[in-house]
Amino acid sequence: MWFERLDWALFTGVFVGIVMFVMESLVKNPPCLITIFVAGGAAFIGGLLGNKLFPQK
Q1: Among 11, 14, 49, 57, whose CB has the most other CB atoms within 10 angstroms?
Q2: Which residues of 12-36 are buried (b: 16+ CB within 10 A; e: fewer)?
Q3: What is the pTM of this model?
Q4: Nearest-5° Cα angle at 13, 50 to 55
Q5: pLDDT recorded at residue 48
Q6: Tens of pLDDT along 23-52?
Q7: Would you tell me the crossing angle of helices 6-26 and 32-53 to the nearest 10 degrees?
Q8: Are 39 and 17 in contact (CB under 8 A)?
């Protein structure tokens, strides 16, 4: 079913949002390439954490 990994995807999205909010708060006008790398890294780490926190049933 399409919603079987929804909790994992929502966790990843919220994690990326929080990391980007903190980065934008700490660094005013960061370069675009840095923002892309931080968002990609946050998505990767958030995906790993979400997979550990919400294992497939």
Answers
A1: 11
A2: beebbeebeeeeeeeeeeeeeeeee
A3: 0.84
A4: 20
A5: 92
A6: 999 998 889 999 999 999 999 999 999 889
A7: 140
A8: no
